[in-house]
Amino acid sequence: MKLQELNVEMPYLELEDEFHDKTDITPLKDPFLISYSLDAAELLGVDLAGQEELLVKIMNGETHLKGSEPFSMCYAGHQFGYFVPRLGDGRAINLGRTENNWNLQLKGSGPTLYSRQGDGRAVLRSSIREYLMSEAMCGLHIATSRALALIGSDHDVAREKWEKGAIVLRMSTSWVRFGTFEYFYAKKKFDKLEALADYVMDESYPHLKGRDDAYFLMFEELVDRTALLLAKWQGVGFNHGVMNTDNMSIAGLTIDYGPYAFLDDYDFGYICNHTDTHGRYAFGQQPNVAQWNLSMLMRALSPLVNIERMQEALEKFGEIYSGYYMGFMRKKLGFTTEDDDDISVLRWLFSIMQQESIDYNYFFRVLSRYDGDKTALLALCELEEPLSEWLDYYEKRLEKENSEAEERHKQMLATNPKYVLKNYMLQYAIDKAERGDFSGVAELLMLARTPFDEHEAFESFAKPSPKSVKNLKLSCSS
Questions:
Q1: Distance (Å, rounded) from C-alpha 227 to C-alpha 318?
Q2: 470 pLDDT band (50/70/90 cuts)?
């Protein structure tokens, strides 16, 4: 299907006016295409070859998709633990939903009703980060929004300095947030709360429609989806950086990529967002924050669902999360069986990694080929003895497995990525892009799509992060 044949529907506009505001897209000056994702285009069933000029015009608001009536969404949210009663899409404009249920959204396309004195723009650096990470998380098999395309411009945008504006065309099966429910709960507009729940049921939980206690079952399933999402975040060393309730997806997806980071060296307390002065959203705190955010959603749903039942479901979050997390980590370690000591073994390993400042993902990739020769792993440490002792225990634990070494290595290499898009790598692409060279974006998009492959030409990106660029911190506008 060609791009001009793509039709969208506007089911969210069927909700009352308070849910949304129809919004005009404000074009950028001299826009141009930087990149588009073939994988995301395939999800839409769209062939973008030869359609680049039309794609830019659609993203810049000069041409509309068939059926599109652009709008922004209203919601509230807890930001760093404090409730803000009215937020909304301050720099995002929705284009509509495709026939195969992808909601298209522009980020950086100008001011909206909810911009709160902002300009509604996104700059090149933040747009590159969002575009690449949306596709990278998919490559890592983690539930996420997607990104179809990225355009740049000659449009000046004021931040800490003058920068160039850009727009990302994002895709998601849902853009409804925990904070959307909080908005109507805080206003005590429970009829609208119910209408929103019905909309979400249609969009993200259609298999629950018509069931007894469908709203409760929806919450219960979201607890499970969120636990799985957080287990995968922690397993790959992903720090979201700004887990406000307005950045939490009602469909259990990763959304809103701002000051995120993958771990360089393992650090349970790592903070990637320099705005987060108290470490609320530190790497190791993310599962706890997710449960707290779910408790805020639970309160918002209480006019529709018995809160005691939801509380019982929410109390299982830790157990569900631990089950998913340990299952994932056993795969990373090459275990196919469960052992009561596995949690202790993992904690022991993490204490060594933190003390020795060992690169998280690189360690597990090297471990994926471990055959009894400790040399490559011990080279990562200043003090070799602690890790050597752990490896001795690890070999004994492997003796309890029935699998052969070759089979174990294959499983581990398919679980432990060779490439994750660390902040220094993204900065490499951004620095080149700001000089007008977008080859770095193309290179990282390729790695994002196939993070478990070898890619010998990019071997340097698979090594531990250089000391000079470790632990970069970013702002929420990054």
A1: 8
A2: confident
Compute CA 277 distance to the chain's CA centroid, rounded to the nearest angstrom: 22
For the chain, count helices (H), then strands (E): 16, 14
pTM for the model stands at 0.96
pLDDT at 331: 97
Which residues, at least 6 apart from 385, have a Cβ–Cβ distance to it below 8 Å?
none
Cα separation, 21 vs 15, in Å, equals 11
Beta bridge mates, 66: 7
Pairing of strands 122-123, 77-79: unpaired
What is each CA distance from 271 to 106, 227, 263, 295, 362, in whole angstroms? 28, 21, 10, 23, 20
Which candidate in 198, 213, 246, 339 is catalytic? 246
Tokens of 218: 């929806």
- Looking at residue 477, its pLDDT comes to 60
Instruction: Establish whether 224 is a catalytic residue.
Output: no
Question: Is there a contact between 418 and 455 (Cβ–Cβ < 8 Å)?
Answer: yes
Residues 25-82: tens digit of each pLDDT: 999 999 999 999 999 999 999 999 899 999 999 999 999 999 999 999 999 999 999 9
pLDDT 10s digits, 366-390: 999 999 999 999 999 999 999 999 9
User: Maximum CA pair distance of the chain?
Assistant: 65
Q: CA 147, CA 130: separation in Å to the nearest integer?
A: 8
DSSP state at residue 33? E
Residues 6 or more apart whose Cβ sits within 8 Å of residue 305:
213, 215, 216, 219
Amino acid at 169: L
Q: Phi and psi at residue 171, in whole multiples of 5°?
A: -135, 140
Q: What are phi and psi of 396, to 5 degrees?
A: -65, -40
| DSSP string for residues in 208-263 | GTT-TTHHHHHHHHHHHHHHHHHHHHHHHTEE-S---GGGSBTTS-B---SS-EE-
pLDDT of 475 reads 64
- What is the C-alpha to C-alpha distance for residues 344 and 302, in angstroms, rounded to an integer? 38
Contacts of 99 (CB under 8 A, 6+ apart): 7, 9
Q: What is the pLDDT of residue 478?
A: 53
Is-contact 195 267, C-beta < 8 A?
A: no
Alpha carbons 476 and 272: distance in angstroms, whole number:
10
- Residues 104 and 135 sit within 8 Å (Cβ to Cβ): no
92-114 as b/e: b if 16+ CB within 10 A:
bbbbbbbeeebbbbbbbbbbbbb
Handedness of CA 202, 204, 205, 206 (dihedral sign): positive
